[in-house]
């Protein structure tokens, strides 16, 4: 019997997605204990259970053991299978919560993944589907994951708390990834955005656009913010509106920011003008942080660099987010990989804050699921 | 000698040189330009036929494309590991002799007994690891996987042997390394012709196996038991210049061919339980890919393990450093073979001996005086130089202390051993510093730090000194390990005494290091006066230490932040620290100027530059305090107040941030450490536990899992200065010089502005830039800036040149660049980047980032190794540590394409255990063979097809797709035939599998309507029927139908409809597919664990056939299946019976004839027999005689008459003929006359007619 790679064990439910995703990719079992053990409502939440169910759907031969209270989870990964899958995501979290992990796993399936996700497309916590579509997909393309079938389509929008959105994500399969050298972020040449509104007056979107432009126009003339007002079945179950902004640079990197209105019945009503202005400011913050990858996708970029061939990959990032820092630690424990981290201070140039140059040598990962014909 | 007349110079008549000369000669005679036929006779080369032209073009393109391989990134390290040369051949063919000769050829040294791999330096840039491969198939398989070059020895007097072919096939499966044949025993041929023929025959057979034109080397004969020097020399040359193609498996997996093994198990554990699992360390060059610590490895023949620790050592068989000369120095011709006892260390069961070695044995201790001088030089370098080099130490100091530190020291072990062999020729090395462990631990730690600093610093300045320092470090390492090791050596008094002597010395030295007083130095100096290298080292160390003490203070200053943190971390639990660090980084990065109270930062920097030591010391303390204060007092919005100071802080941050960030991320333990704190909680009454309020970290562990990076303190984007901070991020902002369109244009103007119109003769001048004008003015005004200006001018000129060259390159290359070229260029760029990225870092840091790189000599510690591995260790068998990729240690179902080897005599049976060699592993498993039908169904096969590929699936370790494999029935003993049963390639890996076998269910109709029938006997219950409703069924006679619905009456019966009416005698059947499960049986071949001498006797699970044979259990045969002699019974037909009515109707001809046949003559009518009297008999006899005579007479007469008649007939015929002749003559005459008459008549009539005409 081949010795099973010894399992890693963690405590707490934070970074659950990272751990399960890395476990699936590295083939090492993982044990997570004390999940909200001290909480009044202990154990896994619905959205986490839904995530685990999703993992079960796209893999073959995974073993998942959860104790009765749901405070301990043992996950022994199988092989990524893919194919056509449908999944009803929990409305407690946005689809972005699930999609982020799927973006990490999708290129390494046996069959190309074509998944329909239903739930909340835009909320205030997770990166929305619009942002992921605008930033993560071009990022994956840098690694050689490309093709006709590589797309993310928003069929219906759903806002919290009701949900009712639908997204179709399809991704081709790759055996190996290309190394990347993203050290020059370039200069921002255009800003695009999407102001959406569902089950509210279509005028909301226009108001958002105007206010956002008022701030951004000070920097750049090339700004276009689309308005997207969905009606009928396509508008989900709850009202809401929001804005996502994406800045594209000359060297093809994308920085994003987004804001969504408060869910119905929670918090005070938000004025669309405020929302637009705040979102624009958030984008400026993101630009201030800078880097070749925006702050939500840092971990995705680092993961794909790790899973490359045994070549040097480099990427320039803004300040590392706490999520990314933990992700780096996880990468080390799952793949024994360390990144060379160099701080690039902001000098005299007026280019925002300090940057971090991350360098690593890929581990020579190859897709073990893909069938050879 | 000199008198001997020298060979005269002979002029070259052929070859490139001669051709060149000839050409020149022709040119001199003004004939040179005619040599180009294309020019001379252009018509001969003109296009004759467009079609043919197209075809030939197509063909050349085809050929060109065929040559292309998919370009791969060249990942060979700058200093590659030694090349593995496997010397293979059947027994008694001369393998050992060849290895000995090769080693002697390269190193001028003679090894008598060769055990395990031997590493030698064979050239300026090449080292070889030579290893012998016997004909145990385990060894053959393992070595084929690691070989770079195979020397395949063939006994020419005998011809090819099975092992050779087996090995070739193994090689083909596992990636085909370079193969070179070597023919030996060529002196046994008496006749030259026979020799030639044999050579040719063998060569061509070899070519068909390897590739046409493969090199086959001939070793013509032996001289004094060795091969001829010249031939060995040539062979060595071939090996040294050989080029290798990268093999997929080898380049994608790290592996080590271990050349040394040590048992590190606690002797006490062994004493209590001799069969306890061992901890071993294995040494060897790392090859293939990067190896990371704690990764999974597989040892073929032993099993899977996790690397518990790995460290790199100085190269024991290093390549020469400077390469000025053409050939190697005698000193540089190293040989390293610890298993054979060469290269300093000899392996024994319970200890390691150090051998004096041969002539080169002393070369590491080139002389203590030399090192002393070196170290003195190094310590006398200026403080400034030290300051410059202190950067390097900054990194090493800031990295976490702990186990790694010990490793660092462990690295230098071999050096240490070599030094010791000076003192006593041969001693155990572990007892030396036994008692030194007692002095306080804290001191030790400090010492470590200091010495480490030393080592690293000197390393940057001088290599020699580094070695020396390393030795120092190992001393301390030995001290730590001393106690444990001493146990090994308690029994040996003699060695112990010498060891104690050493201890005394070392104690002195250590005290020196601590106190660094001159007196003690003197003591040690006197003590060690005659000793050698050690003694020489100590004073130098002392001095360097003194300097280092000061320096270390400096360095502490530089890295104070990290140290602060480490101190904190020691007091706090790991997770707490984690959270704190995180906060810290958040502060530092998002609000960069939070270290607000550092008002003295500006001046501090100035002081830095002055590098006044004392001041710095003060400053350091100050700053520490400041730093602490800052953390407490800094307000959230304070940073806004002094934006202007940002620049001042930038420098500091640059110094700190990188190591800090690194430490922040990787410096802490990330894994769950909560086992302890659960126990430490107080208990109340032994039942309840006090539930302490959760600390911050607890919250973090359960907090929201979100990838978004929220902005904690947003900038006020309405302020102008805040807005300005990101101005340049937009295309509307300022561009870099090299990208700014306006500037680039201006430069181009400068470059290409000047040109001369050749037609008109006008000279256009570009606008001379404003700076050039300025320059002119400035030149006049200021003379002192001149050098600066000159430089800039030079630079400009160079830039100009470079740009022009770039332009030219782009223009020139444009025409020929293809997709392939682009791809290749990309790969090359990547390779360059790979090499350059970590080049400037020291190995310690580098190893952390990229893992241990191939070419390093590493020491790998492995735990939980079965004791048999150590107990039955046989150096002749290769020990390979093969690195496994991610999830390659897992098991699952593996599907492969398999083909039975055409030389294997039997076919393979499904579910018969068989041994596979896939990846690094050899294991026994139970495969199922299958074939894929057109619809993708995988149908089970009982046996492999004879000459066709089939699929095979087994449960076993996951190996990447595309990996080749081979199968053998058994690895034990020597089997008479070709052993490799099958070969193939891995296609797919999965956790489930769907192989089906055919299943026919039969039933019988019990009631038949028109097209509907009731069928019974196919199923057992209505439920089963329900599952198969609608399924297609068929009768044997071919009538198709469908299952309709279950019936109630007999259980399992159903109604079915058919396309025609059935018969009661029909059998109905349904074809179905039944999934087969694969037995989860995976049994690694643990051949290395077998006793010495029995390593080729491993046997695993036996096949059912073998078991039956062993136990004498015969298969119970089905009687019906037995063959019996065929007995054919005679067929009896009944008589034809025609009904009476029919008879009546028939015509008479066809009516049966009922008339009775003539019956027998009745007795009364029969004539009685005549019995004659003697008298009558006499008469009868006489009458007989007379009649005979008479008949004879008559016969004669008849003959006579016949003759007479013949005569008569002939006479008559003659007469007749004559008569006829006469008549004929007569008739002739008559006709003649008649004819004349007629002619006459005719003539006259013609005349008459003519007359009439006239």
UniProtKB/TrEMBL annotation, chain A:
InterPro entries: RNA3'-term_phos_cycl_insert, RNA3'_phos_cyclase_dom, RNA3'_phos_cyclase_dom_sf, RNA3'_term_phos_cyc, RNA3'_term_phos_cyc_type_2, RNA3'_term_phos_cycl-like_CS, RNA3'P_cycl/enolpyr_Trfase_a/b, RPTC_insert. Residues 183-287 form the RNA 3'-terminal phosphate cyclase insert domain. It comes from the Eukaryota. One of its GO terms (biological process) is endonucleolytic cleavage in 5'-ETS of tricistronic rRNA transcript (SSU-rRNA, 5.8S rRNA, LSU-rRNA). Pfam families: RTC, RTC_insert. Residues 10-341 form the RNA 3'-terminal phosphate cyclase domain. Belongs to the RNA 3'-terminal cyclase family. Type 2 subfamily. This is RNA 3'-terminal phosphate cyclase-like protein. It comes from Pongo abelii. The lineage of its organism: Eukaryota, Metazoa, Chordata, Craniata, Vertebrata.
Automatic annotation (TrEMBL), chain B:
Residues 521-536 have a biased composition (Low complexity). It comes from the Eukaryota. One of its GO terms (cellular component) is 90S preribosome. GO terms for molecular function: ATP binding; GTP binding; GTPase activity; U3 snoRNA binding. Residues 1-25, 1221-1230 have a biased composition (Basic residues). Its main location: nucleus. The keyword Nucleotide-binding applies. It catalyses: GTP + H2O = GDP + phosphate + H(+). Residues 80-245 form the Bms1-type G domain. Residues 434-472, 490-517, 562-582 have a biased composition (Acidic residues). SUPFAM superfamilies: P-loop containing nucleoside triphosphate hydrolases. PROSITE patterns: G_BMS1. It holds the Pfam family AARP2CN. One of its GO terms (biological process) is maturation of SSU-rRNA from tricistronic rRNA transcript (SSU-rRNA, 5.8S rRNA, LSU-rRNA). The keyword Nucleus applies. Belongs to the TRAFAC class translation factor GTPase superfamily. Bms1-like GTPase family. BMS1 subfamily. PANTHER family: RIBOSOME BIOGENESIS PROTEIN, RIBOSOME BIOGENESIS PROTEIN BMS1 HOMOLOG. This is BMS1 ribosome biosis factor. It comes from Pongo abelii (Sumatran orangutan). The gene is BMS1.
